[in-house]
Amino acid sequence: MPASPYTDLDRPPLPARALQRALVVPGGLWRRIDVLAETGSTNADVVAAARGGVPEGLVVVAERQLAGRGRRDRHWVSPPRAGLTLSVLLRPGPQVPTKTWAWLPLLAGVALRAAIARQAEVEAALKWPNDLLVDGAKCAGILAEVVGDAVVLGIGLNVTTRPAELPETAGLAATSLQIAGARVTDRDPLLRALLRGVAQWYLGWREAGGDAEMCGLLGAYREGCATIGREVRVELPGAAEVCGTATTVDNDGLLVIRSADHTEKRVSAGEVRHVR
Ligand code: BT5
What we know:
Blueprint: H1 16-23, E1 32-36, H2 42-51, E2 58-62, E3 68-69, E4 75-76, E5 83-90, H3 103-120, E6 125-127, E7 131-134, E8 137-147, E9 150-158, H4 187-207, H5 217-224, E10 231-235, E11 241-249, E12 255-258, E13 264-267, E14 271-274
Parallel strand pairs: 1-2
Antiparallel strand pairs: 2-5, 3-4, 5-9, 6-7, 7-8, 8-9, 10-11, 10-14, 11-12, 12-13
């Protein structure tokens, strides 16, 4: 398909200067919004910026990614301008203990869910730790990478992706906001709402020294989390597995699982499958 921005009229390009003017405001978190026509991976770009000492508040958005990254060497695949693919650079600083950084990808999920509810009027749910599901299918994914004292948060959201354009997946089926019947599929207000939400939650969380309960993040996450109350099977890094009922997410962002023998386990990372 030709790469002209006007080949697909329901996929207009993002208005880079208007975004910059709206989001980069005095005293705000965001310092620079780069909208790239094409790149390998926005996470790779922002990781490189973090290594180069760029301060927090950088946002890189790509209209097209050629090598979008998922977790564990997986890929994120999306046609040009069919979705939002972006990464942000955060440096939480010494007032936030590093063990609470696990909240950052969860925080992005909370902000994303709220932005979608408000702008697109689509009800989404979070699969712990941070897949965004709509009607049980994956509409967005989040990837957090730590680089020294920086955290790079990458978000990929399917907006106008058509059924035939969705990638084949080994796990969850994929979907897009348009397929889910979104009222609005304009990426500009979605991106603004998302970045404003991330900034608001992040600044509150940092102010609270990373205490997710105190800043309201824990409550918001639990409210939006479809994993709580479900029967799950979690493949842990290595070959181990935990099965049981996911009872809650604790103050450290860990998933609490009660097994059939009533023992309780807390998991910090892993592949979760909702069994029932
Ligand atoms: C994720 O990984 O879901 C994190 C994806 C993060 C992507 C963003 S885009 C902007 C930023 N820059 C990057 O380079 N990455 C971030 P994971 O949980 O590992 O899921 C990856 C799996 O999701 C793949 O193996 C596919 O099965 C599936 N997948 C790939 N593209 C998808 C899509 N567009 N929609 C739904 N599922 C997809």
